[in-house]
Amino acid sequence: MIQIYTGNGKGKTTAAIGLAIRALGHNKNVSIIQFFKDKKFYGEQKVLKHLKNLKIYSFASKHPHFYKNIKIEDIKNECEKALEKIAKIIKEKKCDLLILDELNIAIRDKYIDVEKIVRLLKNKPKKMEIVITGRSAHKKILKLADLITDMRLVKHPYYTGIKSRKGIEY
Amino acid sequence: MIQIYTGNGKGKTTAAIGLAIRALGHNKNVSIIQFFKDKKFYGEQKVLKHLKNLKIYSFASKHPHFYKNIKIEDIKNECEKALEKIAKIIKEKKCDLLILDELNIAIRDKYIDVEKIVRLLKNKPKKMEIVITGRSAHKKILKLADLITDMRLVKHPYYTGIKSRKGIEY
Fold first, then answer.
1. Which residue in A has a C-alpha nearest to residue B9's C-alpha?
2. What is the total count of domains within chain B?
3. Which of B126, B73, B25 is nearest to A48 (CA)?
4. Which of A18, B52, B73, B131 registers the highest number of CB atoms within 10 A of its CB?
5. Structural domain includes residue B127
């Protein structure tokens, strides 16, 4: 099955991480491909890298939106490598749960050609669960999905103006 | 801050677990109070119980919706114990992130008096992050929250008829 967590609310990446933890508890093999997640910044990687049966790969860790001096060409090369890794994981058929964290952003920003990833996803082993996160999911990705959850931010007056906090937002 | 993950979509409990993993990566102390989650059933507990700085407590592990021979009185007693544990954690002020998993269901089904939990939550230390999950969040709980994410299930034809799967849904 292909699951998508999208929308402007909180909980997309964290839901995918929770699914990884749940699957590991049942002795499944899990691979996580992360886009645009700086290793030094996000807390989850520090814990996840120590867990058995879990492999985590990080590509294009710096998104040009936050790091202005990053070359688009470098991002595209990194995303190409990520596609190769995804292709390898799908071909090997050893992985039970494959998480493609922020893939939707890589597609939205045209670092990854949607047709290329659609082709890969269509060839996934039937038993492999694939989870895709990120806002602005492409309609061709949505069409492939068996289950879509739209995380909607319900704004609240108190929330306005609170900055991103270590250990919570990242 | 108080965060709520509610709605009929997937990802509420898993988002909370992901937040726990993220917080642990930044050396925070995390406590999880779970309602209606059978230890033998859910995969996450097997992994979470081995993690440093994380405490997980399970109450009323069998919901009468699934286990018809459970006495309502026993559920209420268990929920009362859960409230005592929550009160203790809040009073001790040692916990950075407190997750109340499926608390919304316990309130909805009247096993927990909403006024009692509101009173507790209002006395939380300013720096303690509290995350509440479960569909059908009570309006008095929503009112307390600083951030609400509504997980909306976007149904898809393929999904209809697929049963709950080990390692994914539980």
1. A149
2. 1
3. B25
4. B131
5. yes
